[in-house]
């Protein structure tokens, strides 16, 4: 074996450097809980399995091609490692294969590169310079030789044995594979970053084949689960908004921690929303349940009361499935349904998905006058967007269902000085500092919308649903955010920071702040009841937020579970009130329910099972 090493030193040199770099970067980047020596050992050697396979293939090449091969492999894997490190340190997530399919529509990574890149990132590529020099210079102390398979069977067999041992060792700490897919940190810990993509490719192939093999029997367990946790909607409020117009507004990246809060000088961050919730149903414990599809995921939940997928965006991967969405139910009731969004119609595949959901009209960027003066960051400023959208709402047939998607409060939170109603927060994080003025600007846009709805005479006959679509400040900025919130953001408090505002305003109804624990998936059944629509027309995992017998429960897309008593996140069970660590048994029931929710919802999407629902068209 020593002779084998001597003959292929260049390969071992490249492999060793990449292995060391992978271990160091993974250790410093990913938020992994490693408590035992065996876990640490598995984590350290996991990348070696993939590297041994890929690099040993180069031994079969001609010697003239081996050095370029090892350089190209090192470059390609470094790009994978670097891309994930940059993405993870900002968004605490891994880039999955479906995200690559989304391409530029993935949004945050592709449109704000300068915000994500640091000066020290050049260190990621220094080893490639050294490998490149050795590739060209071909020093004698780093030889390459072709290893003919017939003559080196024992060596290849030993490599295969080492690879198999490493992979098997990675499974020692694995839990249920079906639920592991919800927690990519766990997969990285057990498999390593490169093997993650092998596993992700396996998931991609198996999930794509589920539709072909699905049948009506697959629906039975799902139906039992939905029946088990179903609660009767609020009878007293059933149909109170029947026949009214519906305006649903997605407030980009607005989180609950800004509501009813002020800056150091006393300026309110959301003065209009603060006043609005006094006369509205305000749900203060609603959690962000979006996945990698961000805004589109929340649109999916608002339309279907089903969970988004853990990988990629449903809008991209399953836009042609059969669904039982809110929009189609409203179409049957004589509603005109339209979406308003000053972006390209193909962004997040909305031109395809919207048609499937039942929207009769999509007002995209071509419907708006977008100039350099009235746009910033991701596009048309929110106030201009609202004002231009109103001309279409005035002309819309009634009753109408209109969804409006704002843009200004989007990462990296850019805003022209003349549009800033409050000063930035003083923080070492530019993202945290700039976040508050853009939230304030969106709040002002909401004020403009309500004023114009009143001026046009549409207000009195319209129910308003205003919600934050997903988190705004990623965990990578929680140290700086803690300066604003005034406490250390531990894992349990981090979950509570995932809350987003949900406001349902029905003119004439008395307002009430409601503390039930729920998620964005619960908004649709709440609205369905208020509008007097039969639940039987839809398949909903959510439950009426106003229901009298509703229990407090929400599961997030990563598998975290929150109730009024416990918080389960990152393999730890917390007391929801005081944050103390509890025995895992205290979280078992809620955890199991949460896993089943995600599994069954995924099965519906991957298997296109709505077609087997007895009330589907």
UniProtKB/TrEMBL annotation:
Keyword entries, A-Z: Cell membrane, Manganese, Membrane, Metal-binding, Transmembrane, Transmembrane helix
Assigned GO CC terms: plasma membrane
Coiled coil: none
One Pfam family here: Sulfatase
InterPro entries listed in its UniProt record: Alkaline_phosphatase_core_sf, LtaS-like, OpgB/LTA_synthase_biosynth, Sulfatase_N
Signal peptide bounds: none
Major subcellular site: membrane
Protein name as it appears in the record: Sulfatase N-terminal domain-containing protein
Source organism of the structure: Salipaludibacillus neizhouensis
Lineage, top ranks: Bacteria, Bacillati, Bacillota, Bacilli, Bacillales
């Amino acid at each position: 074996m020593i002779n084998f090493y001597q003959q292929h030193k260049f390969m071992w040199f490249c492999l060793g450097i990449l292995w060391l770099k992978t271990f160091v970067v993974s250790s410093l980047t990913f938020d992994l809980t490693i408590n035992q020596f065996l876990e640490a050992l598995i984590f350290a050697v996991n990348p070696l399995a993939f590297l041994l396979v890929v690099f040993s293939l180069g031994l079969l090449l001609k010697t003239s091609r081996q050095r370029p091969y090892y350089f190209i492999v090192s470059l390609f894997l470094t790009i994978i490692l670097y891309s994930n490190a940059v993405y993870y340190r900002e968004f605490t997530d891994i880039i999955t294969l479906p995200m690559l399919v989304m391409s530029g529509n993935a949004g945050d990574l592709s449109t704000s590169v300068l915000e994500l890149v640091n000066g020290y990132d050049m260190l990621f590529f220094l080893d490639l310079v050294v490998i490149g020099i050795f590739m060209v210079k071909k020093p004698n102390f780093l030889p390459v030789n072709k290893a003919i398979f017939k003559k080196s069977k024992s060596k290849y067999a030993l490599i295969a044995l080492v690879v198999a041992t490493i992979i098997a060792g990675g499974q020692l700490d694995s839990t249920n594979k079906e639920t592991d897919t919800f927690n990519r940190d766990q997969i990285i810990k057990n498999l390593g970053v490169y093997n993650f993509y092998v596993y992700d490719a396996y998931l991609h192939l198996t999930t794509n084949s589920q539709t072909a093999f699905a049948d009506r029997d697959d629906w039975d367990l799902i139906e039992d689960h939905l029946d088990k946790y179903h609660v009767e909607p609020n009878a007293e409020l059933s149909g109170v908004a029947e026949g009214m117009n519906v305006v649903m507004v997605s407030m980009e990246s607005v989180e609950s921690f800004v509501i009813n809060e002020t800056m150091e000088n006393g300026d309110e961050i959301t003065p209009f929303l603060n006043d609005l919730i006094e006369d509205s149903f305000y749900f203060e414990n609603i959690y962000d349940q979006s996945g990698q599809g961000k805004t589109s995921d929340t649109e999916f939940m608002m339309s279907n009361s089903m969970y988004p997928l853990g990988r990629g965006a449903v809008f991209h991967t399953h836009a042609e499935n059969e669904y039982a969405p809110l929009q189609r139910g409203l179409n049957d009731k004589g509603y005109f349904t339209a979406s308003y969004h000053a972006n390209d119609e193909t962004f997040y595949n909305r031109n395809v998905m919207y048609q499937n959901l039942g929207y009769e009209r999509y007002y995209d960027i071509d419907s708006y006058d977008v100039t350099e003066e009235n746009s910033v960051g991701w596009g048309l400023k929110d106030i201009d967007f609202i004002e231009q959208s109103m001309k279409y709402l005035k002309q819309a047939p009634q009753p109408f269902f209109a969804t409006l998607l704002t843009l200004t409060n989007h990462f990296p939170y850019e805003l022209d000085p003349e549009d800033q109603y409050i000063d930035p927060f003083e923080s070492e994080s530019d993202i945290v500092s700039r976040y508050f003025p853009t939230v304030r600007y969106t709040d002002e846009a909401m004020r403009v919308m309500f004023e114009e709805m009143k001026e046009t005479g549409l207000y009195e006959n319209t129910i308003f649903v205003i919600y934050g679509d997903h988190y705004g400040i990623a965990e990578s900025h929680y140290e700086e955010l803690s300066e604003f919130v005034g406490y250390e953001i531990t894992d349990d408090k981090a979950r509570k920071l995932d809350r987003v505002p949900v406001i349902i305003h029905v003119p004439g109804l008395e307002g009430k702040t409601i503390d039930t624990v729920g998620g964005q998936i619960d908004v649709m059944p709440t609205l369905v009841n208020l509008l007097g629509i039969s639940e039987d027309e839809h398949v909903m995992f959510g439950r009426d937020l106003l229901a009298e017998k509703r229990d407090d429960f929400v599961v997030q897309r990563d598998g975290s579970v929150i109730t009024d008593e416990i918080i389960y996140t990152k393999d730890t069970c917390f007391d929801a009130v005081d944050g103390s660590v509890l025995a895992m048994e205290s979280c078992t029931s809620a955890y199991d329910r949460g896993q089943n929710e995600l599994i069954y919802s995924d099965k519906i999407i991957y298997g296109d099972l709505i077609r087997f629902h007895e009330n589907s068209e």
